[in-house]
Design brief:
With about 400 residues, the chain is of the alpha+beta class. About 30% of the residues lie in helices and about 20% in strands. The protein folds into two domains: about 10-85 and about 160-190, no CATH class; about 195-320 and about 335-385, D-amino Acid Aminotransferase, Chain A, domain 1. Helix 8 (about 285-300) runs antiparallel to helix 10 (about 370-385).
Length: about 400
Amino acid sequence: MVGQSAEPRAAVLLQPFVHQVGGHTSMLTYDEHTICKPLVSQELSFYESLPLAMRQFTPQYKGIVSVHLKKDSLGNLTLIASPGLGQPDSCGRLDSASGDPAVTLWHKCKWSHSQVSKSFKDSCPGKMLLRTDLQYHTDSLLEDANGKQPERKSYNPWGLHCHRQHLNRMSSKHNENKLHQFLLLENVVSKYSYPCILDLKMGTRQHGDDASEEKKARHIKKCEQSTSASLGVRICGMQVYQADTGHFLCKDKYYGRKLSPEGFRQTLRQFLCNGNQLRTDLLEPIILRLKALLAVIRKQSSYRFYSSSLLIIYDGQEHKESVDQHLPFPKTHGTNPSRVDVRMIDFAHTTFKGSKSNPNPTPHDGPDHGYIFGLENLIKILQSLLEGK
C-alpha cells in the first residue's frame, strides 16, 4: 500500500546522474537503483500502456515524484524531491543527504573541479576516472575561480552540462516553491561496476508528429547529414572503460553526427575495445538481444519511436570468475543478461494508437520501419565484427 507509513518520507536531494552519455534532458539520481527526469505526458502515456513484450527492453517505470528548486543564501541551487502519494512503495524509505541539503556543493551553477572529481569518486568504485575528448562549442563547461577552464580529463561532463542548463532554465522561469513532476525510472546501469554505455539514436526520422516546421527541417537536415539516413542509426554518446589506463573514453553527440558509415563501424568497434583487446565475447550476447528486440518491434503496429535512443551496456571490468563460469557451456550461454544489456529509452516523442496524451495521433500503420532498418544495420555491422571482417 502506498502512503500507509506513519512517518513522512524524508526529502531526497537529487544529484546529477554521472553516467548520462547522451540526450539533452537532465537525468538525476534519486537513489542507487532509481533515476528521475522531468515528466513529459507523452512519455508517461507510453510507460503506462507499455506492451508486455517490450518491458524487458525498457527501464521499469516506478511512478511520479514532485520536485522543487531550492536556493541557499549563497545562491547555490539544489533540486529536492518530495516523495509522497502516487509513488510505489517499492522505492522504500529514503533518507536525504546528511546535513542541510541546501548547502550541498553539488548544484552550484559553476562546479569546481575538485567537487566534480569527488562526486565521481563517491559514486564509482576504485579510482575510476573518465577521460573525455568532448568539444563544447560556446559553452565553457567548468571554470575555476579565475574563469580559466581546468583540464577536462577526469570525468564525463555530458550529464553535468545538461544538468546545469536545466537548473538555469528552471531558476529563470519559475519561483522556488513551484512543484515540478518528475518520472521515476529504473537505473539500468546500477548493477555494473564500470558501465560501458553506447547511446544510439534509432530510426531514419527524428522529429515527432507535433514538431514545428522549423524543428522538422532541423531534424531532417541532421538525419540527412549523418548515418541516420544511410544506416537508420547514429551515435549520440558513449563511454567505454579502458582497462589499460583506468579511465573512460567518452564521445558525445557532436562526434557521432560527423561519422560516415565506416566511421560508425569503427566507433562501434572502439566501444567493444577495453584498451587491450576487442571484447569479442560480448558480440554474440549483444547480437542475440538485438535480434530479440527486433522481433518485438516488428510486432508493434502503430508505434513510432521518434527521437528515442537505444542503450547498449556492459561492464568494463571483466570479472574473471564470470568469464570462467561460461567456459563449460556452449556459446549461446552468453545470453546471461547481466553481462550485456540492451534498453530503449526516451519516449517523449513516441506515438501510438490510443495514446492518452495524444488521443488522435497521426495514424501510422504497421511497425516502425525506420527503427527496424536501424536495428537490422546495427546487427549486420556487429555480425561482421564477430566474423572478424
